[in-house]
Every structure is written in structure tokens, then in C-alpha cells.
Amino acid sequence: MSHKIPRLGVNVDHVATLRNARGAVFPDPVRAALVAIAAGADGITAHLREDRRHIRDEDMARLKREISVPLNFEMAATNEMVAIAIATRPHACCLVPERRSERTTEGGLNVLDGHDHLKLVTAELGKAGVRVSLFIEPGKSAVEAAESIGAPVVELHTGSWCDALAHGEKERAAQEFIRIQAAATLAEKLGLECHAGHGLDFATAATISALPQIAELNIGHFLVSEAIFIGLPEAIRTMREAIAAGRAKARQGAHGEHS
Hints:
This protein has 259 residues and is of the alpha/beta class. The chain has eleven helices and eight strands. It has a single domain, classed as TIM Barrel. An eight-stranded parallel barrel has the order 1-2-3-4-5-6-7-8, surrounded by nine helices. Strand 3 (71-75), helix 4 and strand 4 (92-95) form a beta-alpha-beta unit.
């Protein structure tokens, strides 16, 4: 358990979405990544989808070449993506489920049915020096399967919790947060580093940062949305303040337990 402030990974996918809507060369997701780093991002996340709906192959190559912080390559566990990841050599690869019909990633990996395949992919990427994380649902069986697969990191899907809060469903939100807490606790017990992401805003990022097991948050769509109104640097600075405030609550709680 750590009381260090969670790292902030900024996802630049939807800067590329805006660029691709006009078939233009701007806004440039690599420029957005550099702005994010200057504003305090600890890492950059980008998802190279099978249909290339936002990030493109050349974006990934430029990100690896031009940024000075760790690159987290989100990808489906396919032969094509494994080959691109090995050629790119990012700091980390986050394996995510992917369907062409979805607007965004809907839920975590099926780590139970896909166990053997994911274990092979994780081992292959690991041999290439790439740290693997698995984007999973916050459940006991998923965390245990991730540990069996051999990934050193899990990223808990926070989308259901955030969605319940957004719709004022307090009981469902409370149940979802209990699931997240339990999954984070189990991940730590099994020796897995625990990240979280999907649907987070300033308030939910602060809340989840109070869980001392959370080492990193990956946030994209909300930050790009806020950038329209307050600018990307200010959005990132405000997010870092929210994360720090949440972790400060965890420290206060720990001190209270031992006083």
C-alpha cells in the first residue's frame, strides 16, 4: 500500500478523433501529448484501434519518438497489434477488449474465456521488454485470472461506477465502488500494480485516488472535453489537484486509524 500520489496518464485519442472528423492534419495528438506533458502528465496513453478511427500507426510512431514520458499503448490482443507493439516498443501495453460497433471500450476483458490466449500475448510482449496491463472488470475472478495470466498490472474499469453517479443512481454507484475497493485490495494482495480508468472526471478521480492501492489513473475524454472550455494545460493541472486532494484523504484516514 502506498500513499504516493497516483500518476496521471493522459489519453490523446479524442484529439485524433477531432482531427479525423475533418480529414485534416490538426489538431495533432502528438502536439496535445507534448502540451499535456508540459502541464504535468506523467504518461501518455493512446489506443490504436483495428479500424484506426482515431489514433493512426504514424501517430504511435511519432509519440514513441517525440515524447519524454512513458507511452502506454492500448490495444486489442491480436497478432497485428502485437507485431506493431513489438516494433514500437512502448513502455507499456494495456490489453483491452475491442468491437467495431462500440463507441468506446465497453467493459473489461473477458480474462476467463480468453485466459490462455492472453497469457501467450502477455508473455510475448514481456519478452520484448513491454510491461503489460490488463483492462478488467473490478471483480474477484477477473483479478485472480489476471494474476494467473502473468500480467504485472491491472487497470480497473471504472465506467459502470461513473455511469451510475452520472445518472443519480446512488445505490448502484455505492455497490460499484465497493466492487472497485475489493478488487484493488485483492490486486495488492496478489502483488499486482493497480490502475484505474474510464469515465473519470475531477470528482470521481479525487474519490478513487483516496484508495491507497491505486497507482495510476488514465483519463482522456473528459480532459479533452474540458480543454474546449478551459484549455488542456488548465484541465490537466486541475485534474492533478483533484488526484492529490483525494490521496491526501487517504493519508488522513491512515493517520486516523493509527492515532
